[in-house]
Specification:
Blueprint (H helix, E strand, L loop, with lengths): L11 E6 L22 E7 L20 E4 L5 E5 L2 E7 L3 E5 L1
Antiparallel strand pairs: 1-2, 1-5, 2-3, 3-6, 4-5
């Protein structure tokens, strides 16, 4: 993976999805058309926090390299140098794994 030259702003984060499962729990190999897009990813970059009414910034609850869960419709997918990433609001993240 090449170096990502995107810096998210505010409460945005950049996430790289983890790979989809190749097999079901019963051992059946899934074709690409049957795979669901994973709802897990690794945070590659975080913004500097949401701007509050008093002019200060809220602290981000996630950090670079956290593995996170998010909803199916979270974020905006982007392609950079052939690699796929997602930009999403911190509020679209459901939880941190681990």
């Amino acid at each position: 993976m090449a170096k990502l030259n995107i810096k998210p702003l505010g409460d945005k984060v950049i996430v790289k999805r983890v790979e989809a499962e190749e097999k079901t729990a019963g051992g059946i190999v899934l074709p690409d058309s049957a795979k669901e897009k994973p709802k897990r990813g690794i945070i590659l970059a975080v913004g500097n926090g949401r701007l509050l009414d008093d002019g200060t910034r809220s602290e981000m609850q996630v950090k670079k390299s956290d593995e996170v869960l998010f909803t199916s419709y979270a974020g905006t997918e982007i392609k950079v140098d052939g690699d796929e990433y997602m930009i999403m609001d911190e509020s679209e993240i459901l939880g941190i794994i681990g």
